[in-house]
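Here is an idea for our session: we take a single protein and study its fold together. Start from the sequence, derive the backbone structure tokens from it, and show both lines together. Once you have written the record down, we can walk along the chain together:
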Amino acid sequence: MAEFLIQYGNNPHYELADGELIDMEPTGPHEAVAGKLATKLGIAITEAQLPWFIPRTCLIRPFAETTTARRPDIVVLNETLLHHEPFWENEPVIALGQSIKLVVEVVSTTWEKYYARKVEEYAVLGIPEYWIVDYRGLGGVVFMGKPKQPTFTVCQLIGEDYSQQKYRLGEFIKSPLLPSLQLRLDDVMPR
């Protein structure tokens, strides 16, 4: 883990999963979706006057005993809790789930990790909401339903597990974390 942090800690194109280096080179449309969504979230956070922000780069290193370090497309942090973070003062690394309000992942070609593994990891961390933005409709039918189509999934932590609500094009997305957010999947789709 220390070697990964030294070599790739500031490189947004890599994360670590059980010691395996994952190249996350995003496409242009992927970045368009993530950028539009970050803008919408930033406006909603500002309008609600919440002490939250979206860091430009952030690594989630959840468990000291594992060799996993995640780099979500968007992370919303509670600035008032960052003084508890053991690494934050020296590097943009989050180790405590309580500092994270929301994680957003924009699905790329390896869709399985977003719907299964990351759902489990983020739930264990206690992150209140996790959004899966599958703008290309790549996920498995078991996660998306039939027919496969662009889907925005809001995962809300209830107890130790996420309750999942799916939204399609044209539908307004409801976020328990940001109830005043006015957002549809259509608003963040690439052109």
The chain is about 25% helix and 25% strand. The chain has a mean pLDDT of 88.
